[in-house]
Design goal:
The chain is α/β, with parallel strands linked by helices. It is about 55% helix and about 5% strand. Strands 3-2-1-4-5 form a five-stranded mixed sheet. α10 packs across α15, α17 runs antiparallel to α18 and α19 packs across α22. The longest helix is centred in the first third of the chain and has 27 residues.
Length: about 525
């Protein structure tokens, strides 16, 4: 069969329909069989056909049985497969590869076979993967399971057949689910040791279903619990609190430290109900959602709304004309202009900053010979846009607003980052934002007051919770900075209140230790 597929003339007819990769694989396989035959013949001649393991001095030697080659499971199709020897009284040992890191590990020594394979063979393998990847999103290669999959296939050796549709859909899916359940169970032990936070995310999908996702965070990582379809449920405080109570009971009330939701009125009421029932749980609204609402309200201020509207006219005009885009892309170090999102209100100010960086390129465009002689220069709407681009007051206003909002955008980046927990930076960040805006206006109250009032209103009435002050006080970045900690002495008393609400026994001893700390 191998000679038939390899296209070797002689004992059997050549297979005309065999693909190139199958033909090549069969040729390589036959070469290996021939080498194995010659090696076996040499070994038999050297030992005079006497099996070494039958000698008295080799009685205690253990035979290593590779994976997939245990008794009765090997491939017997080729001459290289030896008849099974008696394994009675011998202990099976795992594959030798189990004791070494995979060859694909960074810095690992490659195998001799892979070195001798050559670039062309590597390219053919890569192309086989690329053809299959054309059916799925390319970013799947970023999965942590991508390279281990190839390591497992390579360790299995030639002859591996991938699982079919049914195997992936039924038995393997059940095994994967069981694996995930074991991971979740391993995380649950951490919840009891370190405490955890429940995060709630409500959203509407493309079919207009109202879904509520529940996740649990602990220092080891996030775990998705469930997604509840709440389309047919009245989402008032009572119904939602009953739903939340089920999740709290499943996670374990004693394990939960923090509950995070958005700051809609019904979720605020649910937070109060849950915290009233379980005193050890603190509720706070989502920090990113609160910052987004601050950006939204500041963006509604008359002078900023007019400025954003004028900036939008420039962006729309440029991106509605391909010729103008092509001219701008020839400019040195050109980057695309960012555009604001309809529901991401911070992007309004990020877009203004992006547009400000392109001031000189845009002014060069509208004063260039290419533009002046083009048909765009005669258009009425185009003339209005050119007037905005050449208006120095417009660019000055953009500079001021971007400069004012930069501390708030920086805080948003810190909170939205996945690099480290951000709870300990919220309290300090909000005060730094307020101080930063005052400094931008050189402490002229008439100028900074409208912005600071909006931020303070959201911070005092919606955003701030005692857990923010406690996290700030425990953050080593501020604990050893006397210049800031001494200004906010109220955080120590708040810290004591938080500790007392979390612990039922030994409070006095803990407070004494806290003072010593």
């Amino acid at each position: 069969m191998k000679r038939h597929l390899a296209g070797i003339k002689g004992d059997v007819a050549i297979c005309i329909g065999a693909p190139y990769d199958v033909r090549l694989q069969m040729v390589e396989n036959l070469k290996e069989i021939l080498k194995s035959k010659e090696q076996t013949k040499k070994d038999e001649e050297a030992s005079n056909y006497l099996p070494l393991e039958d000698s008295p001095e080799f009685e205690d030697v253990q035979e290593i049985t590779p994976r997939g080659r245990e008794l009765g499971s090997g491939n017997r199709s080729g001459p290289s497969s030896f008849p099974p020897r008696s394994n009675l009284g011998k202990r099976k040992v795992g594959d030798i590869n189990d004791y070494f890191t995979p060859r694909t590990t960074l810095g690992a020594q490659p195998s001799i076979k892979s070195v001798l394979a050559g670039k062309e063979k590597k390219w053919r393998v890569d192309m086989s993967v690329a053809r299959w990847m054309s059916c799925i999103p390319i970013n799947a290669v970023n999965s942590s399971y991508y390279q281990p999959m190839f390591n497992a296939v390579a360790s299995y050796g030639p002859g591996y057949r991938g699982p079919n549709y049914h195997a992936l859909r039924v038995p393997l899916l059940k095994d994967a689910k069981r694996e995930v359940q074991l991971i979740v169970d391993s995380y649950r032990s951490y919840w009891a040791d370190t405490g955890c936070a429940i995060m709630v995310d409500g959203w509407t999908d493309t079919r207009y279903r109202t879904l509520i996702n529940f996740l649990v965070y602990c220092p080891k990582g996030n775990i998705f619990i469930c997604s509840v379809d709440a389309s047919d449920m009245v989402k008032d405080a009572i119904n939602l609190s009953n739903l939340f109570d089920e999740i709290v009971s499943w996670v374990g009330p004693a394990n939960i430290v923090h509950l995070v939701t958005d700051n809609a009125a019904n979720y605020v009421a649910v937070g109060k109900i849950v915290c009233g029932k379980y005193r050890n749980i603190s509720w706070s609204p989502c920090a990113i959602h609160c910052l987004n609402l601050i950006f939204k309200e500041i963006g509604k201020m008359d002078h900023i709304a007019k400025l954003a509207k004028r900036a939008s006219k420039i962006t729309v005009f440029i991106y509605n004309h391909v010729a103008l885009q092509a001219w701008l892309r020839t400019r040195k170090n050109w980057t695309e202009i960012m555009r604001s999102g309809p529901t991401r209100f911070a992007t309004t100010f990020i877009a203004l900053g992006s547009l400000k960086e392109h001031k000189h390129d845009l002014q060069a465009l509208v004063t260039s010979k290419f533009y002046v002689e083009s048909r765009y220069a005669k258009d009425k709407k185009a003339k209005a846009v050119v007037k905005i681009i050449l208006d120095n007051q417009f660019w000055n206003d953009c500079h001021v607003i971007v400069h004012i909002m930069s501390p708030l955008i920086r805080l948003l980046c810190i909170i939205d980052s996945n690099e480290k927990p951000a709870m300990g930076y919220v309290y300090d960040g909000m005060y730094r934002v307020i101080d930063g805006i005052k400094k931008k206006f050189k402490d002229k109250k008439r100028l900074w007051e409208p912005y600071v009032n909006i931020i303070k209103d959201h911070w005092d009435n919606q955003f701030y919770r005692n857990i923010h002050a406690a996290a700030y006080w425990l953050n080593p970045a501020f604990q050893y900075d006397s210049s800031t900690l001494n200004k906010r002495l109220e955080t120590q008393s708040v810290m004591t209140d938080v500790i007392e609400s979390k612990i039922s026994a030994g409070r006095l001893k803990l407070v004494e230790k806290l003072r010593l700390f």
